[in-house]
Each structure stands twice: as C-alpha cells, then as structure tokens.
Amino acid sequence: MSEMVATDPLRFEILGPIRAFRDGRQLDLGPAKQRAVLAVLLLHPGKPVPTHRIVDAVWGDDPPENGTNVVQKYVAGLRRVLDPDRSPRTPGELLALTDGGYVLRVTSLDTEDFRNGVARAAAEHRAGHVEEAARIARAALDIWYGEALAGLGGAVFESARTRLTEERATAWEAWAAIELSRGAFAGLVSELSRLVQEFPLREGLRAQLMIALYRSGRQAEALAAFRDAREYFLDELGAEPGERLQETHQRILRNEPVGGEPSAVSALSPSSPAFVPPDVPAFVPRQVPSPPQPWQATAVPERLFGPRRRGFPWAEVVAATLLPIMTCSVGSWIYFVYAAAQRRARRETITAIGYFAAVLTMITLMAINPSGLDSENFSGQEEAGILLGLFIVVAATVHGAILASHPGDNRQDRARRDLARQFALVDPAGARMAGIGRPDLLRPFDDGGLVDLNHAPPQEIARLRGITPYQAHQISMDRFTNGPYQDYEDLSQRGLLPARTLRGLRPWLICLPTELTTRQAPHQ
C-alpha cells in the first residue's frame, strides 16, 4: 500500500470517512457541514464547482436562505485548516474562487492513486508480469479504508458513493482475474466468498468463485455456488443468472476446462463518472442485451420493479373523507400525517401540524368553562369549540379528499426510482433499451416516475412540475444541438431552467447515455 500513496505534503482521502493529512499528520476538518463542502470539491478536483451545486449537495431540499454566505464561511474555515500560512487578505491558491465557482487544487487524492494503481496492474498483466500485476492490484485495493464518503448523506453523495463502490467491485474482479490467470485457485476461495457477500449482484465475482472452487477440485461446491446465485437472483430480481454464470455452470457440468479467459476482461468507459482507464481489466457481469423486438415489452425482467398503480385511488379517498367525520374531528389530522410521511413534503407536514393544533384548540375551548350536565345552554367557550370542530370536519373532509385524489410522491415510488437508478448505473445500455425514464412507452414495470432528459419526448418533459411546453421543446432541441446531458445540472448551466426549479425536479430526473455515446466510449 505504501507505494500507492503519494508523498505530497497535503493529501486527501475519501475512500472512507473524509480525511486530510499534512506531512503525515491528520488535520481537523471542522464541523460536519464543512467536511461535506470539502467532499463536494474533492469529487471535482481541480474543477470549478458553482456555489449552488455545493448548496444542493450539502443541504439537499432544505437549503439555507443565505446559502452563498454559508458556503463562503465554510470555505474560509477550510482555507484556515488546509492553507494556514496564507494571509487572510491574499487570494487563495489551494482553494480559489473563480468565475465558475470554487476550485480545490489537489495534488494527492486516494481515488486517483487507486485508479492509477489498477491501471498499472493492467499494464503489468498485459506485459506478462502476472505476479507484479497481482501485487499492484491488491495494493491499490488496500487504499480503501472503509465505505467511500462515509458519514455523508444526500443524493449527490449517495450517487458518488455508488459509483465508487462499483469501481471497487470492478477492481476486485480484475484482481481475481489476474489471480486466476496465475493459477492461485485454492487461495482465492475464501476471499471470493467474502466478496460475493459484499457485492451480491456482481455476477463476475460469483463466476470467479465457481471457477476457483472447480479448479481446486471442489466441483460439487462450485455447482452449489451456482444454485445459490440462481436462487438469489430469482428472489431479488425475478431473473435468471446472466450468460457468464450460465456458461460457467454448463462447462463445469461437462467437466470442461474453465478459467479467466481474456475475453472476460473489459474496461469501463472513459466518459463514465466512475472512470477506470481503458486498459483496466474487469469481468463483464453480463452481456448487454440485444435490442428488443417490436413484440418484446422490455429487456428487463418484469419483477425487477413493482407493478404500476392504475386507476383512481378510491380507497384512500374514502378513508381521507370518512376519518374526520367518524372521529368527530378529533382524528382529522391523522390522514395528513400519513400523507406527509409518504410524500416527504414540507407542505403536508405543516398541514398535519395545523390540523392537530386546531383539534387541540377545540378541546381546550370545550374544557375551559364546561356547562353542567343539567344545563340547557352551552357556555361561550363550548359554542366556539363546537363551531371550530364543525369547521375542522368540513375542511379536513374536503381537503383530504382532494389530496388523496391527487397522489404525489411516496415511499414506494422513491424505492423504485432508486432501484432503477442502480440498474442504469450498472447497465446503462440495458436501462435505455428497457425504457427507464420513458413514460411514453408501454412497459410492464414502474420506474417510480423517472424522466430521461436525453430520450424522453418533449410532451413527457412538459408534464414535469414547473416546466412549460416551450421549455420542454427548448430542452429537446438543446440536447440535439449541443449533445446529450451528463447531469440534470446541465439544464441550469445551459440556461434552460432555473436552479430553483431543478431542485424540486431532481428526484424524477435521470440522464441515460445515448446509444452513440455508449458505443463510442470504449474506443475513446
């Protein structure tokens, strides 16, 4: 590991909890938000990051009112830690402010050391230096000291963490391929068993485990490993294992030679956010499916996503309508708490709190000066409480019926969108052919309402909240003229939509690479 770590005075690490070292001494990076700001800059080393992107990454859907000033405060704190010899009145060289945003000039970063190490291992393997390739690849993997960006939450960090984890899994497959090529079968079994538990969706690792068992004389265990893999994929995805696993299984059944063939080694796309240089070997988890025929609904198993909800939500509307009446207004707030939990919307949360406060006010009024049981008249406070209760019943009944009849975002849709994004990250070509982000296509699955900015027609983009038909047309024309979008932020950078509108739409946007980009990427 020592040879993989650069000796620069200032070193940054994000392949675990975010850390910084000066001359081997760990620095105190300050409060959590300040570390998160540094993490955003380290995800774009040497490149300007606009302030609004930092705010979106660190604060998500709840940005501070004076976001620019808050970011400036945390940047000033980072400058004091990272560049203590700089005078407060002189411009920062290490962490500078440019027209495009803040730029962190990094000379030593663990992600770059990791990627360079994997590339060196691939070069050594091609040159026939198998032992050296295995040693360098393992040293590169040893740079990881935990979960990438550990402790940082939010959509931006989760996406970056997923990309880095995929890089790590691919690097483990490359290392295992090198070890298999030099005949280290028995010693690989325990390590590959651990990796399969850590990365259960990586078919390449499962195939390598089967090969290591088979070449160690443990054919029965190799076949049992395939049965375990098949049960897992059927239970989790509703799909049979891919061609790589199927072929390995058949060859083991026929007692044919099987090993880490060169054809099983490939490279990640240089255009991918999680880029490993083109000469890095990695097992292909499964081959890209062929384009679907007109009678085929999708290239993705139907059970990968939950069924699409159809029809009017009568049950929810009836429940929302009857609840205030049946509880005599006391339970008027219950449905709105449910709606707030499902939709994660601040408006519904405030509404639920408002109805709950109104119910408490009604109960308080009726308890202040209660009339006796033998009294024929109500006190003034009781009359006010009764009138307030009647108002709550009417308002909550009508409001709940309207809210229930317009389903918003919910937990199930968010889970489906997350699963669809993970599939698109692993297999963008398969996701594109499956119609992820294309609500205009007939599909037997639900991707949670995603809209692909690079492929969805303008009429579907115009259905998004806050986007007019004219803006949707401009988005469609811009992707044709200036090329596909790499990220939803491109809409703001190209002047198509304001950043505030994009923040509200972010959960529903995805940018799948175009077919041309996917084909050309490996040859760049």
Question: What is the total domain count?
Answer: 4
CATH level 4 superfamily of the largest domain: Tetratricopeptide repeat domain
Oligomeric state as shown: single chain
Largest beta-sheet characterization:
3 strands, antiparallel
Helical residue percent band? 40-55%
Question: What's the CATH topology label of the largest domain?
Answer: Serine Threonine Protein Phosphatase 5, Tetratricopeptide repeat
Shape: globular
In whole angstroms, the N-to-C terminal distance is: 30 Å
Give the low-pLDDT segments: 261-310, 518-524
Q: What is the structural class?
A: mainly alpha
Give me the side-by-side strand order of the main sheet.
1-2-3
Strand content: under 5%
What is the highest CATH level, the class of the largest domain?
Answer: Mainly Alpha
Cα-based radius of gyration, to the nearest Å:
28 Å
Structure summary, number of beta strands: 7
Which CATH-level-2 architecture of the largest domain? Alpha Horseshoe
Give the helix tally.
21
Calculate the mean pLDDT score and round it. 81
Order of helices and strands: EEEHHHEEHHHHHHHHHHHHHEHHHHEH
